[in-house]
Amino acid sequence: MATPPADWERRVAELWARLDDTAPDDFRGRVDALAAELPDDDPAAAFERACAFDSTGHSDRAVPLYRAALAGGVTGIRRRRAVIQLASSLRNVGQAGESVALLEAEREQPSDELDDAVAAVLALALADTGREREAVSVAVAALAPHLQRYQRSMANYARLLVEEGRPPG
Questions:
Q1: What does the alpha-carbon distance between residue 43 and residue 72 come to, in Å, rounded to a whole number?
Q2: What is the Cα–Cα distance from 48 to 18, expressed in whole angstroms?
Q3: How confident is the model over 34-50, as pLDDT tens digits?
Q4: C-alpha to C-alpha distance for 29 and 27, rounded to whole angstroms
Q5: Can you tell me the distance from the alpha carbon of 158 to that of 166, in angstroms, rounded to the nearest whole number?
Q6: What separation, in Å, do the N-terminal and C-terminal C-alpha atoms of the chain show?
């Protein structure tokens, strides 16, 4: 798979910057036109199309495109975004269990700037599967490093939420 040209990437970024100012159908059409400039099997094209559906309220239509992007070998930050966004879309369409499985596996990947996004979506998916204490633990653990104070305490509280034998409350 070749990397999309820099000019294409720039035009995609410019289009995404105008998402809120563009009608959903028009936005998806513009993304589709840009994606059509790439080879039919290009995973970046599938990813961008998935994002366009997802961002305009069509998680159900995004899921197969995220899967295609991942199966096609999407790389770099798009790969991680595809996993996070697929998991979020799965949660939105009632498949929170699969969302949890994807994100738990993703947490084993090398750390990057999207770690907190993985944790946030995982917390939501855990809550949807009835694992609320674990969801709060994940969320507090992700938040702890960003606090000006109490980082150590919050990290410990997050851990204690899911330790076996710990009474609720």
A1: 5
A2: 15
A3: 999 999 899 999 999 99
A4: 5
A5: 12
A6: 51
